[in-house]
Design brief:
The protein is 33% helix and 16% strand. It has eleven helices and twelve strands. A seven-stranded parallel β-sheet has the order 8-7-6-9-10-11-12. Strands 2-1-3-4-5 form a five-stranded parallel β-sheet. It is elongated. The protein binds 2-keto-D-gluconic acid (8YV).
């Protein structure tokens, strides 16, 4: 029997090789309509936009399985219009990303990378590393109390820090103070951790006003998407001292990071590694493939996005 054909945007890790049971084509086939005619599924890893332009080339497409919990690269309304199911990889990366967010928070406030650079460059020989700010007594605001936001909140609360949050709706079972808007949250906290899903409409929920509300000793941590923070406003606020520091795992135009940010000493910059641990990435790949397997076995998608 002929194998079902999948379009895979980028190689991804998984404990099984998808080529064992599927015929795989990649972006090189985009210029060859005949190759695409009988594609029935997409596994979408990386940044490639998945929307109506691509759907128009794939008349037999049934399912898009996103490798990742975020699906801002997929045009959901176009998928809905075309009757295409979209899945993502929730849960399997929650704790990994939350761990990384905590590491980035501590690294940013206590200046761990800067201290490492100080030691390696031999500066310790001439004196001690300058004292850093402290996390003690800081108020932490979580913007987005979804699965990952809740896992970060639990970790921050375990560090004996005050936690509050902003979410589209208040969570009845969340033991933290609720603020209805990003601005009201920023006005009431010292450290803002951004964990809201990325958007496709280009609107940054963390705008200049929110950044200024955090203030000169405020800290921004972003492990969500670059698109949810106004990056030029963030760069300005850090450069002018209107914002104290930032820890960023995500950027507006990855892998391009503004040179101004790279030159600053009050930021910690990571190359989007929130979920990038071997076991977690394998679990994400396995879940993306299981969604495809289940769909083509006739048992439906396992983790469809709403
Ligand atoms: C991955 C992520 O970097 O899950 C997400 O939404 O941002 C990360 O876990 C990405 O999905 C890899 O393609």
């Amino acid at each position: 029997m002929r194998k079902i054909k999948l379009f895979v945007t980028k190689p991804f890790p998984a404990s099984q090789d998808p080529e064992d049971r599927y015929e795989i084509v990649g972006p090189e086939s985009l210029s060859d309509p005949e190759q695409l005619e009988d594609v029935r599924g997409i596994i979408a890893a990386g940044h490639m936009p998945i929307g109506k332009d691509l759907f128009a080339k794939l008349p037999n497409l049934e399912i898009v399985a996103r490798f990742g919990v975020g699906y801002d690269t997929v045009e959901i309304s176009a998928a809905n219009d075309a009757g295409i199911v979209v899945t993502n990889t929730p849960d399997v990366l929650t704790d990994e990303v939350a761990d990384l967010a905590l590491g980035l928070l501590i690294a940013t406030v206590r200046k761990i990378p800067q201290a490492d650079r100080f030691l390696r460059s031999g500066q310790w020989q001439s004196g001690a590393f300058p004292l850093s700010n402290s996390l003690r007594g800081q108020k932490v605001g979580i913007l987005g109390l979804g699965r990952i936001g809740a896992a970060i909140a639990a970790r921050v609360a375990a560090m004996d820090l005050d936690v509050s949050y902003c979410n589209r709706s208040q969570k009845a079972d969340a033991p933290y103070r609720y603020f209805p808007t990003p601005l009201s949250l920023a006005q009431s906290c010292d450290i803002l951790i951004v964990v809201v899903p990325g958007n496709t409409d280009g609107e940054a929920v963390v705008d200049r006003e929110v950044l200024h509300a955090l203030g000169p000793s405020g800290v921004l941590i972003n492990v969500a998407r670059g698109s949810v923070v106004d990056e030029p406003a963030l760069t300005d606020a850090l450069a002018s001292g209107q914002l104290g520091a930032a820890g960023l795992d995500v950027f507006a135009d990855e892998p391009n990071v503004p040179a101004d940010l790279i030159e600053m000493d009050n930021v910690v910059l990571l190359p989007h590694i929130g979920s990038a641990a071997i076991s977690t990435r394998n679990a994400m790949g396995d879940l993306a493939l299981s969604n495809i397997d289940s769909w083509f076995a006739g048992t439906g998608a396992l983790t469809p996005v709403s």
